Amino acid sequence: MPSRRRILLVLAALLMLAGAAFAAALAAGSLPVGAVDVVGALVGSDAPGADIVRQLRLPRALAAFACGGLLAFAGTLMQVLLRNPLADPYVLGVSGGASVGALLAIVCGCASLGVDGFAFLGALAALLLVFGLAHGDGSWTQTRLLLTGVIVAAGCGAVVGLLLTLAPERQLRGMLFWLMGDLGDATAPGLALAVLALALILALPFARELNLLARGPQTARALGVAVPRLNRLIYLLAALATAVAVSQGGAIGFVGLIVPHGVRLVAGNDQRLLLPASALAGGALLLMADTLARSVLAPMQLPVGVLTALIGVPAFLVLLGRHPR
């Protein structure tokens, strides 16, 4: 297990990385803002660009950090729960449910707040459906949960295709942007930040049990871990984190898959360090990706999910090549 000093060093390094990502996010864009003016805007002065920083870039940066942290946190838990290195938040089918809810809201002409609300309700509906089917006869297993999530996700994908086919042409662009991940309307990050903090607070006391569960359920049970209860806690926390992240930023892939692997290479597999480190690294990664998405072709904005895929695919191939087994 890592020493206290190593834990502090890793977390301090990730905090510095997140701070640098925030500074870049607040300064970069179609209208660049200098570092001095960014600081002035944050302390409440009327520096040039202060309204842009406070009203547009700061809420979006906080939302990007929270969504990235939630996805990486959920991915870390899912890889422990399913003991599968390819597990990520979307294996639950929660993203599919959120997509159905959001697209229904867009088709009905709802405002951005309504889209977020319907996406969250869709995610929770998918969560309850998967959870109920996977526990229908009391024989809950990792394989049963995985297969149930895949089938529910496939069904949601069919509904999404139907909605895209029936939607008016003027709404297709917004719908496709949401499906590819878009933080342009994420202007109320308070809920996502609160859920991220709450999820970490609830999960960290069970870090020892999570370490034992990662070795297998038989080993964990022999060492006194209440495996069914711990499985339910992991599932509910991962699903809630995914639902909030997807309702805020759309279907953003690869963050929950790649970040836990990358953090393990540096910090090891102790959940006491891996959970908060993954949340920090995931937040920093999505924050940097969103900054690039709105800056590379400014004033045009790219879907942030496209950038995370472009980063995630080669990163995963590199990890796969380093660990062929």
Describe what is shown at a glance.
The chain is an all-alpha fold and 325 residues long.
Architecture overview:
This protein is an all-alpha fold. The protein has 14 helices and no strands. It is globular, with a radius of gyration of 20 Å. The two termini are 23 Å apart. The relative contact order is 0.17.
H-E order: HHHHHHHHHHHHHH
Strand content: under 5%
Unreliable runs: none
| Helical amount | over 70%
Described by the principal axes of the CA atoms, the overall outline is globular
What would you report as the Rg, rounded to the nearest angstrom? 20 Å
Number of helices: 14
From the helix content, strand content and strand pairing, which structural class follows?
A: mainly alpha
The largest sheet is: none
Distance between the termini: 23 Å
- Total number of beta strands: 0
**What value does the average pLDDT take?**
84
Set down the secondary structure blueprint.
Elements (H helix, E strand, L loop, with lengths): L3 H24 L7 H9 L6 H33 L11 H14 L4 H23 L7 H25 L2 H12 L9 H14 L3 H7 L3 H6 L4 H23 L5 H13 L3 H25 L8 H19 L3
Helix pairs in contact: 1-3, 1-13, 2-3, 3-8, 3-11, 3-12, 3-13, 4-5, 4-6, 4-7, 4-11, 5-6, 5-11, 8-11, 12-13, 12-14
